[in-house]
Every structure is written in C-alpha cells, then in structure tokens.
Amino acid sequence: MRSLTQLAEEASTTPLSDKDIEWLHLLLADWQVLADLAAADLVLWLPTDDNRFIAAAHCRPATSTTVHADDIIGLHLPAAREIELRRAIATGNVIKASTAHWAGTYSMMETCVPVNHEGNIIAVVTREANLSSPRLSLGFEGWTVAAADTLCQMISRGEYPYESTPAVSAHGVPRVLDGAVLIDADGRIQETTPNAVSCLRRLGIRSHVKGKILAQEITDVVGDSSMIEESMAVVVMGRASWRVEITAHASTITMRALPLLDGRRRLGAVLLTRDVSEVHRHEQELMTKDATIREIHHRVKNNLQTVSALLRLQSRRSAEDAVKQALAEAERRVQAIATVHAALSQNVDETVDFDEVARTVLRMSGAVASTEHQVEVVTTGSFGVIQADQAQALATVLNELVANSVEHGLAGRDGRIEVTAERDAESMRVTVADDGVGFEPGAPMSGLGTQIVRQMVRGDLRGSIEWSERPGGGTVVTLDMDLEPV
Q1: Least enclosed by CB within 10 Å: which of 95, 155, 182, 350?
Q2: What is the secondary structure of 203-259 as a DSSP string?
Q3: What is the rounded distance in angstroms from the CA atom of residue 50 to the CA atom of residue 292?
Q4: Which residues make Cβ contacts (< 8 Å) with residue 134, sequence separation at least 6?
Q5: What was the pLDDT predicted at 373?
Q6: Cβ contact 417:432 at 8 Å
Q7: Measured on CA atoms in the order 283, 285, 291, 294, is the torsion positive or negative?
Q8: How far is CA 211 from CA 100, 141, 181, 191, 208, in A?
C-alpha cells in the first residue's frame, strides 16, 4: 500500500511540504475521535495535477455502519462529487451537501471540510454519514454530531488537530465509545453518555451531574488522600488536549479533553473517559511480581555470599592443604552463581547482559585461583543477552575453565588467558586459550571441574566442548552452544 507521502508526491508535481505532510499525519493520528463523534466515514482527498481528487486515507466509525465496505485508498473521486470539494477549497469553508448522495447500496449525507494549514488549503476531508444505518444505541444522538461540526470548523481554520494530541498507540487512551462528556466554557456538564456516567460513578460521583462543574465534583471525591496530577484541572476544565488519570474509591479513570474553539474564544470541550481500573490493577500486580522476583534474586545473592564467606572461613581454619583447595574451589563456584543472581536482581526480565557478568566472573576466577603469580585474563567479543538459566551455567563453565588454566596450564608461572566470544543470533562459540604448558593429548581428564563443565555444556547449554593444543604452546578450549531465544 502506498503511504500518504507517496500519494501526495504522485498527486501533484508540486508536492506538499514536509510541514504540510506532518500536519496531515497529526490529523490522521486523531481523526478516529471525529469519525466516532460524527458517526460517519472520514476520507482524506488530495487534489491532483489532472484536476481530480485521490483518496489518501480513510477512517471508519465505531458508532455507525461504514459507507465504504471496500478499501478506497488510491481511488479517484467520481466526477459528480467534485463540485462541493472545489467549493470547499475555493472558499475555505465547510460545505454541507443540500441533498443525500447514493453510494452503491447506501444513501449518505456528505460534508466537505477543507484542511487548513498555515493559511493554505492542503487537502479536503469528506464526512460521509450512512443514512440507512441507525447509530448504535449509545444515548447521544444530537450533541456529538454538533461537537463534530465544531471540530470540522476548527479544521477549516487550522485549529485542529491539536499539537498536544496523545499518541493513538498510547496505553489507556479513551475513545468515544468508552464514554463522553460535553462541558461548556465554564466547565459545567451539558451532556453525558451512559458509559461516561458509569465512569463518574466509579469515582464516587453518584448525584445527577448535569449543570454541575465537573472539576468541583471530581475534587470533592478525590479529596486530600489521593495523589492528584497537576494537569488534572487543565483537563477536566477542557483547556488543553491532555490526558490524566484520576484515582478515587479504588477506581482509576483516564480522562482526555478535546477543547472546542472558535478562534480565541473557548466554546467548551468534549471529555473522553475510560475506566482503566482493571488495567491499572493488573499493572500493579505485575510491578509487585517484578519487585518480588528482583528481591528474591537479591536475597539469593546475599545468601550465596554468606555461604561463600563461611567456606572461606572454614578454609582458613583447616590444616589440610587438600581440604583448603577443595573449599576454595567450592567458594569460587558459589561466587560465580551469586554474580548471576546479582545481575538478575537489577532488572525485571529473566535475562542477563552477560558481558558484565563474564568480566566479573573471569576476574574473580583468575584472582582466586592464582595466589603467587600474575595472571592476566583478557575478554574479547560480546556475549550479549542470555536467559537466566543458561547464564548461570555459562558463568560456572567459564569459572571452571579459567580456574583450570590457572591451576594447571599456568601452574608455577605468570601467564595470559584469552576468552573470546563469537555470537551469531542464537548460537555462540566461546574459546578459552592460555599460554601455559599445555596438556598431553589422550591423557584422561576426569577432575571434578571437568565433569561439571561437560555436564553443564551437554545439559543447560545444549552444546559441545573440545580441548586442543594451542599453536606456540598452551591449551585452547572451544565451546559451541545453542542459546534459548531472548
């Protein structure tokens, strides 16, 4: 499908400016409200070089049956309907058809609205109401159409759309179907829809509200016990097209204002309301769940560090070298797992940015395993984001491989260990290379560290591992694994 910009370029050899296109996009972002208030289809027409009009955008109402069942974007306006569009462009005024038009199997009433931007008419919007389809039973027949008429007049004067229009995709933006309230310039309620009355009752406003000042009614029920957004008064008085959340009596209502203007004179506003209490409650539950998960990881990390400290204390009190070595290895493994939980306690996802974890684990492994010699551990490449279970396994494997290089490959000497990560989507290769004494090919590798590595590589990392001689001396360990999708 061609975009609005492409259609504008194809329609004329002198296409609209970037600012004009931005203005049209701003209009399209909010014209569902206008279509629902008017209970009519909205079609944006651009004039072409061959003196015709092409449909650049189309919006169907949620409050009535559409006039156009098929897609009309990219089609030209029938010649018989061009007269009123030309009058709208020539005069800059909203032109209402004197008689109904026949559109296929439907009878419709058409209104032509010139789109004014910075004093120039850049397009025309037709408001096409299906006369053969009654409006949905929403409890508001006449006043919403009158409000739509006012918005159309504002379009012709360049006062609508609002520059502060909330994004359509924004969470919780209310629609006309969710509830609508009409207030005058003083903020007094003139009309309401049944859904809007229900929203006000959720806040505790149970009296007959017609003729009352909405801002005062909301202030009375909110009181001093709830937090009030600074923008609430501006919204409930209809002074700006902003959005606010109002909480009272365990209910949360989103409210958005559509100011109705005539130049600098305020006519009032349409306030759209939406009950988001359940959505808000669900969000609170998720926030509580996320906070609980982070707290669990934090406590696990603290407990593991306590275990590590106890192992260190026990190691110092032991007189047996073999016992000291075993306890030191156990402490190192516990610290590696604690590092992963420390990272998990900082975010809401069960994923870990493993690069920082790897640097911490490798630095700790090299320092703890080596007590008398200088060992440099260098990391290159990027591990990226990894699921928590695999992050814990990979941290343990790297800890064992680096410790093994320090204790055996670099035993009794200074040296360098290089850890390289090469990731391609959901597969990764990690190499751990040292410049130590190497190993004897074919010699059995049956130590506890090696057993831990092999088991975790085959299980959690779903990969394979291989030891080989490093050219120039030393050992290279190559680990290939399949990562779980993040």
Answers
A1: 350
A2: TT--S--TTSBHHHHHHHHHTTTS---TTHHHHHTT-SS-EEEEEETTEEEEEEEEE
A3: 65
A4: 64
A5: 64
A6: yes
A7: negative
A8: 36, 19, 12, 9, 9
pLDDT at 340 (0 to 100): 78
- Cα separation, 35 vs 32, whole angstroms: 5
- What is the Rg, in whole angstroms, of the alpha carbon atoms belonging to the chain? 35
- Token pair of 131, please? 């006369």
Cβ-based neighbours of 289, under 8 Å, separated by 6 or more: none
Starting at the edge strand found earlier in the chain, the sheet holding 375-381 runs: 375-381, 415-424, 427-434, 475-482, 464-469
Q: Delineate the domains of the chain, giving CATH numbers in brackets.
A: 4-157 (3.30.450.280), 176-275 (3.30.450.20), 281-482 (3.30.565.10)
Q: Using CA atoms, how far apart are residues 200 and 251, in angstroms rounded to an integer?
A: 10
Residues in the chain, pLDDT under 70: 1, 13, 103-105, 133-141, 165-172, 224-229, 280, 283-290, 348, 366-373, 409, 411-412, 439-446, 486
- CB-CB contact of 290 with 283 (8 Å): no
Contact 399, 469 (CB under 8 A): no
Amino acid at 87: R
Q: Quote the CA–CA distance of 144 and 146 in Å, as a whole number.
A: 5
pLDDT attached to residue 84: 92
Query: Is residue 367 helix, strand or coil?
Result: helix
Q: Which of 46, 1, 2 is nearest to 20 (CA)?
A: 46
Residues 238 and 187 sit within 8 Å (Cβ to Cβ): yes
Query: Is the N-terminal amide bond of 485 cis, ω within 30° of 0?
Result: no
Say whether 419 sits in a helix, a strand or coil. strand
Of 444, 443, 434, the residue nearest 413 (C-alpha): 434
**Backbone conformation region of residue 316, classed left if phi is above 0, alpha if psi is from -120 to 50, else beta:** alpha
Which residues contact residue 261 at a Cβ distance below 8 angstroms, ignoring those fewer than 6 apart?
Answer: 154, 159, 267
Closest CA to 195 of 236, 255, 239: 255
pLDDT at 121 (0 to 100): 94
Closest CA to 157 of 97, 125, 126, 113: 113
Q: Report the relative pairing of strands 415-424 and 375-381 from DSSP bridges.
A: parallel
In terms of residues, how long is the chain?
486
